[in-house]
Structure formats: structure tokens, C-alpha cells
Amino acid sequence: MNLCDLHIHTIYCDGKDTPEEVVLEAIRKNMDCIGFSSHSYTDFDESYCMKKDKIQAYKDEISGLKEKYKDRIKILCGVEQDFYSSEPTDDYDYVIGSVHYLKAGDGYIPVDLSADDLINSVKKYYGGDFYRLTEDYFATVAKIKNTDIIGHFDLVTKFNENYRLFEETDARYVNAYKKALDTLLLQDAVFEINTGAIARGYRSKPYPSREILDYIKAGGGKVILSSDCHSKEMLMLGFSEYGKYLF
Fold it and tell me: For the segment 195-225, what is each residue's pLDDT rounded down to a tens digit?
């Protein structure tokens, strides 16, 4: 199996390590390639993403690392583009399209900040109806365009281990994700099997669920493994176990 991980965050956004520290760890693990994917700038929340004045420095540093380590590992410079980010993506090697927020009221609510925050947002904006939230979420995901990789397709389930918030077999939830997939499968994008929430202790299985993966496979979609790595130790986390999910 080609040892490659394309969903990696560093100190340029909400990651722990410098890009070079990640490169050296990837080389130590005998990886074939890595791709950096810092969070694109969002003006309504700067807490987790690249700052505007650091974007060029990010691109320049990755470019330098490409040259420095070209004989040892392939390095790509990508971006994880949030749906509500207006930053250009033309000069990246690839784009991961993700939805981390939903528009609500006069602002935005994060779907992956904390369970308590999500519960409170559902009470405030969706009348306590989690299925309305998931319908809104997947309708937004369906609008992702101009991307190479669809990031953590069912991120809205991050805090739903053991179905603590809602049932993922409910018809409203199933219909919502199938409708989104029917749209996205018409694009030439790849869906990631993302192990990031496992690394951070939120889930015992990767995104997306097996049921969603089965639907993607039946629709002729493509998938890759990614770690959504925020610290170098987590590079390729679970790849040996979840490689069996690839098709």
C-alpha cells in the first residue's frame, strides 16, 4: 500500500508541530508522501485557521520543504477549505472541501466544537430537533464544489458515539446523507476515510460510517485514508486497520 496521508495540520492553524517536524516523522515512518492541509481563513472565527498574514509564509515553507526533501519523500501543499471561507484555492496542489459551520441567525455555529455547544445550538436554532440540524448540515455539504477531496463527510456525528444525540438509522438522517451523496457523486471528488476523531478520543470508528461507505461504493465513488493529523505521532493513525475499508 502506498503510504500517503493528505490531511495534516500544523502550527499554521490548529496543529501542534511545525511542517518540518511532520516531514521528519513521515520519513521516519517510511512514508511515500504527505500533504499539508491547513484550515483556510474564515473571518468569523480566527481561532483555528490560518491567519491571513501567514498564508503566504505557509505556502513558502512547504515549497522549501518540497525542495529540501525531494529525494526522500513527496510533499504536497494543500488546504482544507471550509464551505464558508472565501479564500482563493487556485495555487494549492489539492483542496479538501469541508463543512465545519452552519449558518444560523446572524452568525455561524460550529458542528464540531463540543457536544455541549452542539446541544445548545440545536435547542436555540433547531427547536431541539437534531434531525433538522443534520438535514441542514448535509444540504450544505452537498453544495461543496471545486474540491479534490470531501472532508469527513459525516462530521456532524463527531459527538454521536453510541447514538447519544440521535439515531443514525432514522429515515430523516439517512435520506439527508443519501441526497447529499447523490449530488457529490456526480463530481470527480474523493471521499476520505478519516481517523482524526479516533485520535482525539471522540469516536471508536472513522468517518464516514460503514453504511455511508457502502452507499459511496454502490454509487461508484472513490475513497482514501486520511488521519486529519494534528500532531505528528498521529500520522497514518489506523491505516493498517481501516485499509480494509478501501475499495
Answer: 999 999 999 999 999 999 999 999 999 999 9
**Is there a contact between 223 and 192 (Cβ–Cβ < 8 Å)?**
yes
CA distance 130 to 122: 6
Q: What is the mean pLDDT of the chain?
A: 97
* Three-state DSSP class for residue 17: coil
> Reduced to 3 states, what is the DSSP secondary structure of residue 64?
helix
Distance CA 153, CA 150 (A): 6
The rounded distance, in Å, linking the Cα atoms of 105 and 98 is 21
Dist CA 8 CA 5 (whole Å): 7
- The two counts, helices (H) then strands (E), for the chain are 8, 9
Pairwise CA distance, residues 80 & 39, whole Å: 5
**Bridge partners (DSSP) listed for residue 17:** none
Q: How far is CA 33 from the centre of its chain?
A: 18
Which amino acid would we find at residue 245?
Answer: Y
Please, which residues have CB within 8 angstroms of residue 45's CB and are 6 or more apart in sequence? 101, 108, 110
DSSP string for residues in 117-156: HHHHHHHHHSTT-HHHHHHHHHHHHTT--S-SEE--TTGG
